[in-house]
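Form P-L/3: holo structure prediction, ligand glutamic acid.
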Amino acid sequence: MTAIATHEELNVYESAEARFEIAAKQLGLEEGLYRFLKYPNKEITVYIPVVMDDGHIEVFIGYRVQHSLVRGPCKGGIRYSPNVSIDEVRALASWMTWKCAVVDIPFGGAKGGIICDPEKLSRAEIERLTRRYTAELSEWLGPEKDVPAPDLGTDPQVMAWVMDTYSMHLRHTVTGVVTGKPIDIGGSRGRREATGRGMLITCNKALERFHLKPSDCRVIVQGFGNVGSIAAQLMHETGYKIIGASDIHGGLYNEKGIDIPKLIDWVYGQHKPLPDFPGGGERASSQDILFRSCDVLVPAAVENQITSQNAHQVDCKILCEGANGPTTAYADAILQEKGVFVLPDILANAGGVTVSYFEWVQDRQGFFWRENEVNNRLKDVMEHSFDEVVQVRETHKVNNRTAAYMLAIRRVASALRLRGIYA
Ligand code: GLU
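OUTPUT (holo model):
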């Protein structure tokens, strides 16, 4: 392993493969199954024409990668970002397969993305882009086939357009084609908060192992989008002290703790840049915030934040990965050597897809649960999954990430052995 973050290190697909390989080897996975699970099932590229507000036609590139349908319909978000690439979507699709298997929900994995900058598009342009993307993919989507959800740059309104477009093509309303929808059209109570809530639940479990109380814990959260801001809010309510936070504009650090409800109002109520928060503390860059001393570090922004070049600077007991792939495979060994207790993305942020599963179940039943019921079931799934990962860790003397992959690969491989290869 090299000490320099190379192109190879920063390619998320290579990172995903490296983790899969380590866990597959540790499991002694048969060669044939290894080959089967290493590659996606299907990769779809669509060129999406959109009439822009000024009347000219733009063409956007969109992807949907279906990694696995061995355990059930494909499941995974759609991201709108200028940095989307086929390698990224492919990596994210495979992570969804492992994530769904870690929490033992009956889905395979998929991911979609469109190369675009949603900040530079009007809502009307985003709507046309979404509808045409959905129309192009309609034969591959469906409650029994592939069920998208929100991810970076997309939100419940975008999911509403996906649901409506798909339903118009089928000539009847199909709420279960997509999750993360607004509650009024078949969304689930608690879905918006689910990823952050799942992170809180896994952190609470990790704290028990360290005999720590939330009030003993200083937390730094990188990223203040849906995942980071809600995790910070729920942790703050539980008594954790949030001493650092950042968004795309930069970060803030305050040893005494940041008033998170006020910060949320500043960023979301008043639409102001996070670092300008009055009396918030000392300014720091979004990268620097990762290396301040804390008990729980929560990278909840984008991929490749903790690499072989900077992992030695990380100064925390618990690393709770809110983003997908915030740590590179090369950094894993350094964190292990430092004794950091890592809550890997495919476990820590699985609360989102878990409540997506609940939403899909509710849509299919046409029977909707109270928020308490959603949250209690989520707690049960997350706590149980945490215990199962730790059990594999202890039995096989591996780190948490490898343990989570082993648990997931074992489940998918078992389903594959039972189903066999159709010829
Ligand atoms: N985009 C989220 C994730 O990466 C949610 C996926 C889903 O709910 O299907 O886990």
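COMMENT: Residues 371-396 form the longest helix (26 residues).
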